[in-house]
Amino acid sequence: MKLAVVLFALVTLSECLLKIPLTKGKSARQTLEEKGLYEEYKRKYRYNPRAKFNTKAGGAMVPMIFYPESTYYGVIAIGTPPQSFKVLFDTGSADLWVPSVHCSSSQACYNHARFNTTASSTFQPSSETFSIQYVTGYMTGDVGYDTIIIGDLYVTHQIFGLSLVEDAFLDSLPWDGILGLAFPNQQSINGGTPVFDNIWKQGKIPQDLFSIYLSSSVDGSMLILGGTDPSYFTGSIQWIPISQPTGYWQINVDSITINGNTVACAAGCQAVVDSGTTEILGPTRDVNNINGWVGAYSEQGIVSCSNIKRMPEITFNINGFGFNLPASTYVLPYGSSCTTGFGTWDNDQWILGEVFMRQFYTVFNRDQNWVGLAQAKKSPESD
């Protein structure tokens, strides 16, 4: 209940916009490294983002992967009286799920907030179940309906998942569950309507869009429902149409260049803008080429931290606009060294995760099926 009070105190309403503060918490990787368990978990729970973007069979399986780096989360509440949860607001998935009070399969259940259905007078049970697919197994749970509270906004009769069995790796994550912000599609739990769609259908916000500002500081990041806030960006918003009706925020990228030289995506490529992925992910050959151009000296993209000021900008050319990533934004600390924020996966598609979104204030426009990008204002930590 204390978290709910803090949430309601922090939320700011400005010109009918609902602002939900996001916290940059400690990543699963940091937590596991402190316990000496990261290498063990990395071997056991292979980071496989492809699973997240695969269509699941029968509409009953929710893609789920080990998120070793993802850190941003906000607070919502569920039920009457409200029970508070920290959730990852994920533009790469469409569902809401939190742990159930009956979840007892691993320490992951006990170390996170759990929803007690009997304590909510507005909870409506369902005979349906859902599963979340891991590389190594499944999360299973029940499906129910209840009121979701985001700030002072109430979303009634919202379908959501209640996990009963959770794998051990979830114990290291800073958030309790996930609130998906992708389009409703065959991946939604039992064909249910996602939270944001119900927010719009129930007339809770002035515009059918939301925007995200990610700060490099612990505090200062924001999810804004119903509009945009110029205090978080400079210049104008460049609008990019959704390229394919995949259910994700997918756009066309014309090319990726360094100093005018095409280094990746030479013939154009598809990219998904995903707040639930930390890195910028791309095909192995392209990412290795980028890492070579910026001076990385290993397949893991390791670079000298002292060279950051001399490393080139990387430009994503999208819809006729150039979006520049300076080295200070695409180089990340890695133990006692540094690494580029580019990862590889077995797919021709690109994923533009937190590394990209920290540089660009991002608008997700459901009304027009557009993604908007504008230069994000620097957080105090980066000045």
Automatic annotation (TrEMBL):
<feature type="disulfide bond">
    <location>
        <begin position="265"/>
        <end position="269"/>
    </location>
</feature>
<dbReference type="GO" id="GO:0004190">
    <property type="term" value="F:aspartic-type endopeptidase activity"/>
</dbReference>
<dbReference type="Pfam" id="PF00026">
    <property type="entry name" value="Asp"/>
</dbReference>
<comment type="function">
    <text>Shows particularly broad specificity; although bonds involving phenylalanine and leucine are preferred, many others are also cleaved to some extent.</text>
</comment>
<dbReference type="GO" id="GO:0007586">
    <property type="term" value="P:digestion"/>
</dbReference>
<keyword id="KW-1015">Disulfide bond</keyword>
<protein>
    <recommendedName>
        <fullName>pepsin A</fullName>
        <ecNumber>3.4.23.1</ecNumber>
    </recommendedName>
</protein>
<comment type="similarity">
    <text>Belongs to the peptidase A1 family.</text>
</comment>
<feature type="disulfide bond">
    <location>
        <begin position="103"/>
        <end position="109"/>
    </location>
</feature>
<feature type="signal peptide">
    <location>
        <begin position="1"/>
        <end position="16"/>
    </location>
</feature>
<keyword id="KW-0645">Protease</keyword>
<keyword id="KW-0378">Hydrolase</keyword>
<dbReference type="Pfam" id="PF07966">
    <property type="entry name" value="A1_Propeptide"/>
</dbReference>
<feature type="active site">
    <location>
        <position position="90"/>
    </location>
</feature>
<dbReference type="InterPro" id="IPR021109">
    <property type="entry name" value="Peptidase_aspartic_dom_sf"/>
</dbReference>
<dbReference type="InterPro" id="IPR012848">
    <property type="entry name" value="Aspartic_peptidase_N"/>
</dbReference>
<feature type="disulfide bond">
    <location>
        <begin position="305"/>
        <end position="338"/>
    </location>
</feature>
<feature type="domain" description="Peptidase A1">
    <location>
        <begin position="72"/>
        <end position="374"/>
    </location>
</feature>
<keyword id="KW-0222">Digestion</keyword>
<keyword id="KW-0064">Aspartyl protease</keyword>
<keyword id="KW-0732">Signal</keyword>
<dbReference type="InterPro" id="IPR001969">
    <property type="entry name" value="Aspartic_peptidase_AS"/>
</dbReference>
<feature type="active site">
    <location>
        <position position="274"/>
    </location>
</feature>
<dbReference type="InterPro" id="IPR033121">
    <property type="entry name" value="PEPTIDASE_A1"/>
</dbReference>
<dbReference type="InterPro" id="IPR001461">
    <property type="entry name" value="Aspartic_peptidase_A1"/>
</dbReference>
<dbReference type="GO" id="GO:0006508">
    <property type="term" value="P:proteolysis"/>
</dbReference>
